[in-house]
Here is the input.
Amino acid sequence: MSSVPDGKKLVRSPSGLRMVPENGAFNSPFSLDEPQWVPDKECPRCMQCDTKFDFIRRKHHCRRCGRCFCDKCCSKKVALPRMCFVDPVRQCAECSLVSQREMEFYDKQLKVLLGGGTFVVTLGTSEKSETMTCRLSNNHRYLFLDGESHFEVELSRISSMQILTDGTSPGGGTSRASGMLLHYKPMGSQDAQQLRMEAADDKKVASLWLAAMHKAAKLLYEARDQ
Here is the structure.
């Protein structure tokens, strides 16, 4: 399944140009659907400052939440990769802040996840462990684990994720991520499988990868709850 090429197509929506997978089944698990715009007839006033719209004060829709605002309250154009927009799009003040914070994930943490980290991996209740490199697939839909063996975990089939820590970091700071405990359903099965990953030799790289995965999990759960 993960080897199927993910073709892209350019589509135009009322909100702007979007580059989306040709097959909707191959959407990134982090992606969000475009919101339904509040109908013009239902918003005679700005939904932020209550300014009345007229021929001079035009109404604008936030591309992230779909609500209606005046130009002053919806003037920022911010990148919105979670909806696959090609260019930055108009967003209200609240949504633009959320999108800007998410850009840190796309600019930094996503690259860490794609680069991978090395972990000691244990499946289920097995006493056997294997040192494997774990990385996010290019289409963001799978975790690839490679060592003497190879297997994949589809992100959409992860039911729970827990980041494990090793106590406090040097200098008495916050605890550092040292591993991860996943529960997921393998393809073709409705029974949950446990996967335990613990940092191997390069613990700094592994810790950064786990921190990025923690952020990814938040986006993943948010997309599911949409």
